[in-house]
Recover the amino acids of this structure.
């Protein structure tokens, strides 16, 4: 573990936190002063000079900008807090006190797969508990699948993933930033409901949304005719009242269209920040290039989520009763929001699953990279093609100790690096070992409990 790097990062983040705290106090004070000045300016315009209204309007715009800037400071503070938590999790794992981590993967244990507990793959004190950096449910499911003791038929997928992990080890800040953004999400965040809601076709007709173009031009024409004296001013409220009535009558239909947005509001900005970080990085390994290409294919994931995030903000704003009545009276905002979301679904919704899967794969790579980021000694296995077992002769091979127990072979090894190979003719099963295995699966280097239909294993070790 590069302890100096993580200590420096922690000091930098703590110093920035202090700076942001002081800046937040200044901005809060400035907001109060500007707000009081704005109220006073409007008061002067109302009582004495109309020019006061102009000063109040200018101060209102300045106040809105300060509110936005204050939100940016708060968001940055949240990110730095999350990043410090990530740094602390690395330090905890390096110190050996990681067994207190809540996510141990016990839900992935299977009764018909004893290797899960015998090889400490899942459960308390397992490799899953040690390396898991996934925050989403899909990411954890993908990580659990990659830790399966059943070896794959093709080693190329493992080699490609190894290259991705190796590159992430050369980009520790990227891993820190991505994991920090992910930690701001709800624990075990699940996008299954959103994907299902977005991908299934609408059962209702959407032709009623074309009505949204009528109220505003009719209201403008009515105002012009009233100004010319052709219509009575008493008729001016007619169009706004009609628009509000129409929005209320069709509220159930517009809410059904916008329902998927309710399941993903806060997370949208986080996904947007994550995708922007990945899209702006020039990767070298094939696995990381594939992830970036999945996000920047036909359409940009970050840009489309930015548009969707803005739409969600508008929808959430209209939940205020006063804003709802005002926006729908003037523009039928519910109809425009529903139409905008339908347009987004046509262009980008088909790619949403691909984007989410790309991030799940990135979570897996970050999890595996945490081994190299928290340990001084680590290595990548060299996978040899072919069915016939072979021993790397550069290793100092020695058999430590084996005992028979209920038809199984129990193997013990205290060395830092170890692997299991077959002595006689064996099937395609393989045993786990240290930081790598004959079939490319990573696990803790402790004592193991291996079985393969009565066949015989021995261990090859090197200090």
């Amino acid at each position: 573990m590069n302890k100096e790097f993580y200590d420096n990062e922690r000091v930098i983040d703590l110093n920035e936190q202090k700076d942001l705290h002081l800046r937040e106090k200044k901005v809060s004070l400035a907001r109060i002063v500007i707000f009081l000045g704005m109220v006073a300016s409007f008061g002067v315009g109302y009582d004495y000079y109309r020019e006061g209204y102009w000063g109040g309007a200018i101060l209102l715009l300045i106040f809105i900008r300060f509110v936005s800037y204050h939100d940016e400071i708060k968001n940055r503070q949240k990110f730095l807090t999350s990043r410090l938590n990530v740094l602390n999790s690395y330090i905890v794992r390096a110190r050996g006190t990681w067994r207190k981590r809540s996510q141990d993967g016990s839900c992935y244990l299977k009764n018909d797969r004893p290797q899960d507990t015998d090889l400490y793959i899942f459960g308390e004190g397992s490799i899953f508990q040690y390396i898991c950096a996934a925050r989403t449910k899909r990411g954890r499911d993908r990580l659990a699948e990659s830790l399966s003791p059943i070896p794959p038929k093709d080693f190329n997928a493992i080699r490609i993933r190894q290259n991705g992990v190796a590159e992430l080890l050369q980009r520790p800040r990227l891993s820190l930033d991505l994991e920090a953004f992910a930690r701001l999400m709800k624990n075990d965040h699940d996008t299954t409901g959103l994907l299902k809601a977005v991908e299934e076709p609408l059962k209702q007709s959407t032709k009623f949304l074309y009505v949204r173009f009528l109220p505003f031009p009719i209201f403008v024409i009515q105002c012009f005719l009233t100004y010319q004296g052709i219509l009575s001013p008493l008729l001016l409220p007619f169009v706004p009242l009609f628009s509000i009535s129409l929005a209320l009558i069709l509220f159930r239909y517009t809410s059904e269209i916008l329902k998927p947005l309710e399941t993903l509001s806060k997370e949208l900005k986080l996904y947007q920040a994550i995708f922007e970080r990945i899209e702006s990085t020039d990767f070298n390994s094939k696995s990381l290039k594939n992830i970036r290409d999945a996000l920047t294919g036909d359409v940009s994931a970050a840009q489309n989520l930015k548009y969707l995030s803005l739409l969600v903000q508008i929808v959430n704003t209209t939940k205020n009763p006063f804003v709802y009545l005002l926006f729908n009276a003037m523009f039928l905002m519910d109809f425009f929001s529903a139409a905008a979301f339908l347009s987004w679904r046509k262009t980008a919704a088909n790619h949403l699953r691909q984007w989410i899967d790309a991030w799940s794969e990135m979570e897996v790579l970050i999890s595996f990279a945490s081994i190299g980021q928290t340990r001084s000694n680590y290595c990548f296995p060299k996978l040899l093609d072919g069915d016939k077992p072979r021993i790397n002769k550069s290793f100092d091979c020695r058999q430590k100790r084996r005992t028979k127990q209920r038809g199984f072979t129990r193997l013990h090894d205290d060395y830092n690096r170890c692997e299991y190979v077959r002595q006689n003719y064996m099937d395609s099963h393989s045993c786990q070992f240290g930081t790598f295995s004959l079939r490319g699966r990573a696990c803790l280097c402790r004592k193991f409990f291996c079985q393969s239909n009565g066949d015989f294993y021995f261990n090859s070790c090197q200090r």
Summary: The chain has three domains: 3-95, 192-369, 376-463. Residues 3-47 form the longest helix (45 residues). The CA atoms of residues 193 and 223 lie 46 Å apart. Strands lie at 402-405, 408-411, 417-422, 448-450, 457-462.
